[in-house]
Amino acid sequence: MSKTVKKLAEELGVSKQTIQYHYQRLPASNRQKDKQGRNVISPYSERLIRDKVAKALSPSNHQKDRQTASNSDKKNDDLIASMKGEIAYLRVDRDKQFAAKDQQIEKLQKLLDQSQQLQLMAEQKLKQLDKPKMSLRVILKQKTSKLMHKPQKCSKQLKVVQNIL
Q1: Got the DSSP string for the chain?
Q2: CB neighbours (10 Å) of residue 5?
C-alpha cells in the first residue's frame, strides 16, 4: 500500500523535509504521484527510504559524535568556569597586595620626609652653635692683638687668653 511523505515521516519520527530529500534522490522510475499531485511512496521506495533514514538515525557516528561533543562542551564549560573563578580570586589577591604595597610606600615616604626635616633641623642647630664659637674667637683674637701692642699692661691677661685659644 502506498503512503504519503507526511505519513512516512510520522512513522519514522523525522521531518517531512528529510523524507522529501530521500524521495527526490530515488530513481525517477520509483517516484510516483497520486491524482491530486502529491508524492506517493511505493512499498519498495518506502524500504529504500527507511534504510537511508535508519542509517542517518542510528546512534553510531553522528549521535556518538554529538554526545561526545556535548560532553566535551560541558567539560570545557566547567573548565572555563573554574578558570574564571581562579582568575577572579587571583585578581582580588593581586589587588590586596597592591594596596598593601601602596600603604608601605606611603609610610616610607612619610619616614623619608621626617628624616629630611630632622636632618635640616640638626644642620641649623649646628650652624647656630658654631656662630657663637666663631664670634668668641674673633673677639678674643681682636683683644689679644690689642694687648700685644701693649705688652706691659696686660701680660697676665694675654697668657690667659692664649691658653684659651
Answers
A1: --EEHHHHHHHHTS-HHHHHHHHHTS-GGG-EE-TTS-EEE-HHHHHHHHHHHHHHHSTTHHHHHHHHHHHHHHHHHHHHHHHHHHHHHHHHHHHHHHHHHHHHHHHHHHHHHHHHHHHHHHHHHHHHHHHHHHHHHHHHHHHHHHHHHSTTTSHHHHHHHHHH-
A2: 19
- DSSP notation for 105-127: HHHHHHHHHHHHHHHHHHHHHHH
3 beta partners: 41
- pLDDT tens string 99-133: 999 999 999 999 999 999 999 999 998 887 776 66
7: pLDDT confidence band, cut at 50, 70 and 90?
confident
SS3 letters for 86-106?
HHHHHHHHHHHHHHHHHHHHH
Nearest CA to 24 out of 43, 5, 2 is that of 5
- Give the global pTM: 0.35
